[in-house]
Specification:
- The structure is a single chain.
- This protein starts with 5 loop residues before the first strand and ends with a strand.
- Strands 26, 29, 32, 34, 35 and 36 form a six-stranded antiparallel β-sheet that branches. A five-stranded mixed β-sheet has the order 1-4-3-2-25, with no helix packed on it.
- The protein is mostly beta strands.
Length: 435
C-alpha cells in the first residue's frame, strides 16, 4: 500500500485551516502558487495575475486564509512586494512598493507595527527594508553590507526586533551571521555567527527562519541541506542543531502545531516534513509545472482547529540516511473516516508492520541486535504492508463519531538488506489524541 500524491485542478473553494499556501519559482523564470492539502495529500494550482506569474516568486506571508503578501525575485532589476487576496482558486495582487527596492531576491516578509519588513540581496551584502502595509515608499532600515558581504536570505521577528540570517553555501569565505534590528531605536547589530552545516562543513546557508513556537523566544533557521538550527537570540547561543536531511536541497518551511512537524518546501518541487529530526521525503512530490526546475521558495501553514498527532519519540535509521518517518494523513478527529497512518523515507519494497497501542512504552532492542532502536508502544493491533517504489505506505485508520482517547503508533521496517543483526529499522512514534 502506498501513499498517493495528487496534483491537478480543483473546484473553487476557499483555503481551509490545516492546509498550506506555497509560492514557487519555475526555472528562475516564472512564478506559481499552490494550495497544499495535507490530508489527501494534494497540491492544487492557484490562478495568478500576470504580475505574479511572469516573474519568480520568492516568499509568501499570510494574514489569514484569504489575504497575505508575496515577494518576487526577478532575474534582472529589483524585487517587488505585493499584497494578495485569494478568492476560490484565484489570486488578485497589488504592488505595495511605490518606489524601487534596493536589490533582488526579496526574502521573507514580516508584518510588524503597520509595516512590512523584508530583505533584498545585493553585493556586498544586502538590505533590510520596509514598506507601509497599505503601500507606499520603500524605507531602507539596515545596510547588511556594514556587517558582512554575505547576502541576507531569511527574516523573522520576536517582539519588536527583526532578525536577519545570511546565506553562504560555500566552504570558504565569510561566516554566515544572525543580525538583529530594533524597530524602536532603528539600530542593528550582529547577534552571533552561525555554525557550519552538518552536511558538508560549509558555511550555514540560511534559506528560511521562523519564531519557533515549540520553544518560545527562540528562532528556527533552516539550512539548504536540511540543517535545522534553533538559536536563542537573547543568550546568543545554539539551542540545538540537527541534520534532518531531505531527498534534495530545501528552500522554505513552516510550523504545523497539530503534528509538531516542520512543513518543508524543496528546490525540486516537493513538499516534505521534518518530524523531530526525522525527514519524510516527497510527501507531496511534483509541485509546480513543469516539475523540472520547480522550487518551493515560500510556504505558509494554517493550523487546524482541532486534532493532535505529534511525534512522541524517535526511531532508528536503517539503510537510508534518516529513519523511516511516520506522517499522518489527516488528523485524528471524531468522524474523520479518511484518517490514515503513512510511512515515508523507507527502503522501497521492504515489508513493514504498523504497531498500534493504547499505551506508550520504551523497549530497547540493543540486546537483540538493533542498537539505538526502541519500541515505543505496546501494540494491541499490528497491520502488515509493503513499501512502494517510493519507499512509502499508507494504512487507513478511520475515526468513528463519538470516540475520544489517545493511541500510539510506530512502524517497524524489515530491511531488505539488513544493516543490523536484527535487520529492522523503526519509525518515530506518533501520539494521536482524539478530542
Amino acid at each position: 500500500m502506498c501513499a498517493t500524491a495528487l496534483l491537478g485542478p480543483w473546484l473553487p473553494a476557499q483555503i481551509n485551516d490545516g492546509q498550506s499556501i506555497a509560492a514557487l519559482t519555475i526555472s528562475s523564470q516564472t512564478g506559481q502558487m499552490y494550495r497544499i492539502d495535507h490530508d489527501v495529500p494534494m497540491a492544487s494550482p492557484l490562478t495568478l495575475p500576470a504580475a505574479l506569474s511572469q516573474t519568480p516568486l520568492n516568499c509568501v506571508t499570510m494574514r489569514d486564509v484569504g489575504q497575505g503578501f508575496v515577494g518576487t525575485a526577478p532575474r534582472t532589476g529589483t524585487a517587488d512586494v505585493y499584497g494578495i487576496t485569494i478568492t476560490g482558486d484565484t489570486v488578485a495582487a497589488t504592488r505595495l512598493n511605490s518606489t524601487p527596492t534596493s536589490g533582488s531576491g526579496l526574502s521573507q516578509i514580516v508584518e510588524l507595527g503597520g509595516r512590512l519588513y523584508f530583505s533584498t540581496a545585493a553585493f556586498p551584502g544586502g538590505t533590510l527594508e520596509s514598506v507601509p502595509v497599505s503601500g507606499g515608499e520603500v524605507r531602507r532600515e539596515l545596510d547588511v553590507g556594514r556587517f558582512t558581504s554575505v547576502r541576507p536570505n531569511a527574516v523573522a521577528a520576536i517582539g519588536s526586533t527583526i532578525y536577519i540570517a545570511t546565506y553562504n553555501v560555500s566552504t570558504f569565505g565569510e561566516t554566515s551571521l544572525l543580525l538583529a534590528f530594533d524597530t524602536t531605536t532603528r539600530q542593528g547589530d550582529v547577534v552571533m555567527a552561525l555554525p557550519r552545516s552538518l552536511h558538508n562543513g560549509s558555511n550555514y546557508s540560511s534559506v528560511s527562519m521562523i519564531p519557533f513556537a515549540a520553544q518560545p523566544g527562540t528562532l528556527a533557521i533552516l539550512g539548504v541541506y536540511g540543517d535545522v538550527l534553533v538559536v536563542d537570540p537573547d543568550t546568543r547561543s545554539v539551542v540545538s542543531h540537527e541534520l534532518a536531511g531531505s531527498s534534495t536541497q530545501v528552500n522554505s518551511f513552516a510550523w504545523d502545531p497539530n503534528r509538531g512537524d516542520l512543513v518543508v518546501g524543496t528546490r525540486s518541487g516537493h513538499i516534505e516534513r521534518i518530524a523531530d529530526g526525522h525527514s519524510a521525503a516527497r510527501v507531496i512530490p511534483g509541485v509546480g509545472q513543469p516539475s523540472a526546475g520547480a522550487s518551493v521558495t515560500g510556504i505558509w501553514h494554517f493550523p487546524a482547529a482541532q486534532g493532535s498527532d505529534v511525534t512522541a519519540g524517535r526511531g532508528c535509521r536503517g539503510q537510508r540516511f534518516t529513519p523511516p518517518t511516520d506522517v499522518g494523513l489527516g488528523l485524528p478527529t471524531p468522524g474523520n473516516t479518511g484518517f490514515r497512518a503513512a510511512l515515508f523515507s523507507g527502503q522501497p519494497g521492504s515489508p513493514v508492520v504498523l504497531l498500534v497501542g493504547t499505551a506508550s512504552a520504551a523497549l530497547p532492542l540493543d540486546g537483540l541486535g538493533a542498537p539505538g532502536c526502541v519500541v515505543r508502544t505496546l501494540p494491541s493491533v499490528t497491520v502488515p504492508a509493503v513499501l512502494s517504489s517510493a519507499g512509502s505506505a499508507t494504512i487507513p485508520m478511520p475515526i468513528p463519531v463519538g470516540v475520544q482517547g489517545t493511541f500510539w503508533r510506530q512502524w517497524a521496517e524489515i530491511e531488505s538488506y539488513p544493516t543490523t543483526s536484527l535487520g529492522i529499522a523503526l519509525s518515530n512514534v506518533r501520539r494521536s489524541t482524539i478530542p
